[in-house]
Structures are given as C-alpha cells and as structure tokens.
Design brief:
Helix content is 52%, strand content 8%. The chain has 216 residues and is of the alpha+beta class. It is globular.
C-alpha cells in the first residue's frame, strides 16, 4: 500500500504524482497543508513521519521516506510499468542532469521557505518576490531550452515516452505560468509541456485536479 503525503500545489509532490501515474500505481493521497498560518507539516505528528517536515513523503507498507527525487528513483526501481529512465547509460545521465537543474538549482531558490525569508528578513514585497522567482526560472530555462534542442522534432526529451526529465519539467512549467514568466523564448520546453499535458497521467497529477485543491 502506497500513501503519498502531499500538498496539491507543491511541485515536488506533483513530480511524484506524475511518476506514480505513469507507472499505473495504486496509491492514496494524504493532504498536508503547508501554507503559512496552517503549517500542517510542522506538527509533531508529521515531524515523526518526516523529520525534515517537508512534502512530499511516501509511506510504503508502514515505512516512510521523503525527498521527491529519491522517491522517483525508488518508483523506477521498485514498481512495474513504463521506464522513467532511458535504457542507454549516457542518456540516463543526460535525463538526470536535466531533471537536476530543476530540482537542485531552480526549485530550492523558489520554494516557500526562501520566499518567506525574503519577505520577513529583507522586506521584499510581492513584486520583488516575483522578480526573484522569475530570475531563477529564466536562468535555468535558458540551459534547459538549449539541452532540449537535441530532441527537436520529437514529443519528448530523451526517448519516445516521457520520463524523469518531463516529470521534473512539467511542474516547473506550471510554476512559471503561475508567476507569469514569459515563456516565449523557450519554445522547445513549451512544446514538450504540451505533449505531456495531453497524456492522462499528467492530467490526473495536475494541481487543479487534486481533491484538496483550493480555488485560485
């Protein structure tokens, strides 16, 4: 039995939902509201499940683990279904590198914690926070767009089916649109996003389709 502790708008949790859907896994969701003022991830109960007090967390037969990219590796290694990584070792390296630009370089700078810190410690207003957010997306997307040109003319980045690169990209594209980042320079990324959004596993994983989603 797989239980995913997630927040509907968390891009890290979004990644895991996509991966589980691509594998055709049977899982249940446990919503954790991480918004400031609610902070369900900071409760003693959740701390016992995940000492880092972040989402997502995954529970498998009573065992708990966190960190979305590590969870993706477990999903790939443990669950049947379509491969999330290419068969060729070099292509696997490239796919992981693409995903890590998002997970390791873009996302940590734009997570709720640093954005709140900018407001609290430096007095950043909404406009300043939005500029910060867009800056790191654009820097990362420039590199990703160049890397994605190697697969121009195909629907997906490192093979004939979506995998870890798309699993990381699509939530970040949603974040970019939410913060009104200009995506005109990133036509290849937009094309890959459109190809993925047409697939049922991605549709079911989308934030707005989660049972705990709140109106914008």
């Amino acid at each position: 039995m797989i239980r995913l502790y997630d927040y509907w708008r968390s891009s890290a949790a979004y990644r895991v939902r996509i991966a589980l859907n691509l594998k055709g896994a049977d899982y249940s969701l446990v919503p954790i509201n991480i918004l400031s003022g609610v902070d369900e991830q900071l409760t003693d109960e959740y701390r016992r499940l995940n000492p880092q007090m972040r989402v997502p967390s995954i529970e498998v037969d009573g065992r708990m683990a966190g960190q979305s990219m590590a969870i993706l590796e477990w999903i790939e290694e443990s669950l049947p279904g379509p491969a999330l990584l290419p068969a060729d070792p070099w292509a696997r390296l490239q796919a992981r590198a693409f995903a890590d630009i998002i997970a390791c370089d873009i996302h940590p700078l734009n997570n709720l914690s640093p954005l709140a810190y900018l407001r609290q410690e430096f007095g950043a207003d909404d406009a300043a926070v939005s500029r910060w957010y867009a800056e790191w997306i654009v820097r990362g997307f420039r590199a990703l767009e160049e890397m994605a040109q190697a697969s121009a003319g195909r629907d997906f980045l490192f093979g004939d089916t979506p995998g870890i690169a798309e699993i990381a990209l699509i939530p970040q594209m949603a974040n970019a649109r939410r913060f009104k980042v200009d995506l005109a320079p990133f036509l290849r990324l937009v094309a890959v996003d459109a190809a993925c959004q047409a697939l049922e596993p991605f549709k079911r994983a989308a934030p707005e389709n989660q049972p705990s989603a709140k109106p914008a």
